[in-house]
Amino acid sequence: MGDYILKKIVDQSVLNAGMTIPVENHQKILEELGLDLNKGDKQNITIKINNHEYAAKITCVNYSEKYSKRTAIQIRYAEKSPICQALNSIFKYSAGNIARRKAEDSGKKKQLSVEKEYIEVFSAGKNTLEFKCYSKDAATPAVFSTDVLIKPVIEHFLNNYIKAKQEKLAGHATGIYIRKDAPKALYQTGLVDRENYLITGSVGQGNWATIPWLGIFDRNFTTTATQGVYIVYLLAADGNSLYLTFNQGCTGNKKGHSKKEAIRIMREKAKEITSQIDGRGFAADEEIDLGEGLTELGELYSKGTIFYRKYTKGNVPEEAELRDDLARMMEIYREYEEKMSEKRKGATDNKSDMESDLESDPASDIETDDEPDIIPGDELWGDEEQVDTKEAISGIKKYIESKGFTYSGNLIENFYLSLKSKPFVILAGISGTGKTRLVKLFAEAIGATSAESGGNGRYQLVPVRPDWSDSSDLFGHTNLRGEFIPGAITDFVKAAGEHPKVPYFLCLDEMNLARVEYYLSDFLSVIETRRWSGDRIVTDQIILDKAAEKDYGRMSLPENLYVVGTVNMDETTFPFSKKVLDRANTIEFSHVNLELEFDGESDTETDPEVDFMGDNPEPVLLRNGFLKAEYIVLKTDIKKEQQDLAIKVCTELQTINDILQKANAHVGYRVRDEIVFYMLNNAEAGLLDYRDALDNEIMQKLLPRIQGSSAAVKELLCRLFQKCAGDYSGFMQDSIWKQMEAYIDGRDCVYRNSAEKICYMMRRYEEDGFTSYWL
């Protein structure tokens, strides 16, 4: 280690962008680096941290005329670059505290530090500096764990897996080790940052996998082995060799292609990556051998390997060498991530590559124009445009199922489409069917957790009280002394507005214990003022109380706030008015299966690529773009290529509306538009068949409006049944519901769920003399 240059307290700038060198250290640092910089000059340098080298730049800032007499020298690196990730991993205490303080300061622009952790900067040769990092106790430099952690993992694969395959998988110690202990060991090395990387072990489901895996995923790019690029340890089928690989998912390449074509695509991608990234001593050929007689996916996975190193049974290197291998592979991964980020952002994104001239005061550290809008604990999966909706929903379902809940049919897809079409959904049904649990688990599955359970506070459950009579219970009021008293959700709505990049979920539990149109009136009105402001969705103010502006500003409904109400329709609750029904998708929970099943063993082996998430799937962790509405105004927001679908849906709705009008149950433009939005979102994501999707919307937006005891209601039900079930028109006057039931049985109805619901409503009409949608 060379001469000491300066000490720097770890602050927000150090973790995200770089550091400004104090004026008194300018000459020293330039001399040690062997550089002479004029204003506007910049030079690539190397920074060493814990025997690893990272790329950075040193710049003599060329200020605008206003600051032309000032001189500032800064070390710069891009946000989320390898050095940035390494520093955040080492200084977890500072990173967490800075994030919390930033949230408490409501995002005000200023540098934050905790003055507990610091860096000493030393010279290390021409164009090279060394950072000696001191952790919270400031007693010794922060270093990675020196415990023997990786070697036991590799030896466990090589020495135990083949023998374990002769025994039952359920509860086996080897399966538990690979799924639980092995990921924990890799995290403990300090080489892999838990906040940014997901480590998952897989040994198959039901039966043992032929090729067990231990994978490392960058959460910003992928959390599944079916797509993207990642690091994965692969055990060969015979158990005698294990490969550390830089690899790629093959399922996406396989779709729509022959095996030969899929292999060609994967090899081209591998060659493209190896031509741009230094292999750092790893093999880059096609000689990886996972064994004979593999499944097609197994063979494709072998061909997808980009870089690798082979370890053999009885000849596993020592811990230091294994750590060096993983560290170098992580460097490859980070370099790949950086290139992908640069490719997406483009050459003109000056903030990302830190090439723009800064006009901040030299006395302050480096600041970017927009600080990351993330609350403590958030881990986000990629950019909005990268999310594959089908895959994300598959991950959500796996997470929910891992918690012991299974929702039948296309309920999760329907719930997603309803939220995306409009951020207000009602879940209705008898008590105990899992309505409230669905909201909580769905929120958890995409990264929103409750503050009460130690989470990030992006999910909040608010039990509705029977005595609520106006909006002050939710949004607050001013007392007799002129002080604003916040309501049950005021602070939650404020927090959502401060962090618009991530979704917030508000669950109003048993929302019809009080009259919804009374206590939720302000919300119901303001949600209809949604409009575009650039690429943001904005609304009118939700709190008009002047006393509230001191602490809460001019608060409107944030575009990332999703409100879900749960309701039990019985004698203790209030019915919904059409004002409420028009503004929400109402999803009914009516089917209950009380049969109990325990997980058993599968008859066939599950390919490890499919089961990479293991027994305990992680949350999918999505940005708000996953749920953010795409459409607000029907005629202006849809694309030209979507117009045919919109016209098709509107034509069908007009036919149904003509039937509804006979009993004064017809709908207006608002309902029409929201049904069209639902159908467009479904077509965009390719989730449901057209008829199934429109069936959902008839159930959720049209049928809840029907109730009464008049002859017009009876005629409406008959005609609507004919529309939903088919061309049946032979109703007799008595026991019409039995005729409907018999007609539905065994037939492929146009809108089956709606036809069955109409049959039920007709039964109530004939037996009770009155009918409604609700149970």
UniProtKB/TrEMBL annotation:
Residue span(s) of domain ATPase dynein-related AAA: 425-569
Annotated Type IV methyl-directed restriction enzyme EcoKMcrB subunit DNA-binding domain residues: 158-337
Compositional bias of kind Basic and acidic residues: 339-354
MF GO annotations: ATP binding; ATP hydrolysis activity
InterPro entries hit by this protein: ATPase_dyneun-rel_AAA (IPR011704), McrB_DNA-bd (IPR021961), Methyl-DNA_Rec/Restrict_Enz (IPR052934), P-loop_NTPase (IPR027417)
Stored Pfam families: AAA_5, MrcB_N
Full protein name: 5-methylcytosine-specific restriction enzyme subunit McrB
Organism whose genome encodes this protein: Acetatifactor muris
Lineage of source species: Bacteria, Bacillati, Bacillota, Clostridia, Lachnospirales
